[in-house]
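User: For documentation purposes, I need each entry recorded in a consistent format: the amino acid sequence on its own, followed directly by the corresponding structure tokens. There are two entries in this batch. Please keep commentary to a minimum and don't merge the entries.

Assistant: Recorded as requested. Entry 1:
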Amino acid sequence: MLAGAGAAAASASALPGVSLAQAKSNAAAAATKSAEAYGPLRLLVPAAQGSGWDQTARAMASALQASKLVEQVEFEYKPGKGGVPGLAYFVEKYAGQPNTLMVSGMVMLGAIALNRATVDMRRVTPIARLTASSLVVIVPKNSPLRSQADLSAKLKTAPASIRFGGGSAGGVDHMLMGMMGRALEVPPANLSYQPFAGGGELLTAMGKGELDVGITGFSEAKQALDSGAVRALAISSRADSDGIRSLRSQGVATDISNWRGLFAPPGLDPAQIQKHIRLSAALNASPAWVAELKKNRWSNAYTSGAPFAELVETEQTTARVVLHLLKLG
């Protein structure tokens, strides 16, 4: 969810392919049935290995197998442009194939809006939102920026001197940079942003001194934070979290939350979609998944069926509005 960049426009009309009426029926059925045993499951990750979507896919696979809900999980990667090429590939290659799901989230909605993609979320069926997490604003350990106050002051006086880096162009990391600039009254044209396919690439660039400030998911930065390779200046939650002060508590009036979930390809029948929803519900209820959430510092944001389909529709509209307001697209 987004805040601090103005009210979103009214929700668009019902998206073809999302099938809200069908999703409501699926959700009702999922509430009364447990997930049946799966055969092999393929997870399409439209991002690089080591990215947040990859972390989510691997945590999901670990919990599914530990809970004996799935016999085998295969991974396939199609990185680039916030998942837009991967989405098109998923729709074309896996239409009608019931044992393949795509791991995606809010980042893709921003990338679709920025790239004006012809293949969008109307072509897939939302199954379930699984997680929500905050972003962190980080700097290399030896950075002269010792606090968020230092960064805010620099952005007000010499914004072009700050080299930002984060995830895909148009994604939540990019949005947060723009929202910070808007809150500090910095013209968007004066902000510099370098997109990366995954958190690992971002951290490598920071280690080489190629960036001044990074924006990424807390879970993706945790190892680097724990090792002291980078320092956190702020977190994007509304309140302080994980020992890190929020942007709002440091005078930057904005916040943003990133979510990730599962999507099915087009061409599945209602029974096949129900099976995926039941699997997601069983995953969400498993102790193994609870442990993964805790380990990765993710919030449980489980929503399935019609509520998730409606969320995707609304957030797609919101992403377009935010990118327009921030002059990012």
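Entry 2:
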Amino acid sequence: MQNQRIRIRLKAFDHRLIDQSTVEIVETAKRTGAQVRGPIPLPTKKERFTILISPHVNKDARDQYEIRTHKRLVDIIEPTEKTVDALMRLDLAAGVDVQISLG
């Protein structure tokens, strides 16, 4: 796997879960002898929703909710076969979305 790179993008609503998952990925990759770049924090996406809490009138009565999507990027440079096997066997938290691309 010469001149290969594995790019791992992580997304989660809870920043503690995503930080814990990135630490596990980085430790696993370093343990198998690969070079790691990251974790790189990407911009947090904030979605805001405004909801009328009054059933009929009173347009001033509103609640506002927010969902924050935290993102991290980890690049693994020159991965070995051990690195790929270890990453495939890695069990991450349920609330973390993982996207892996080879480049």
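Summary note for entry 2:
The mean pLDDT is 87.
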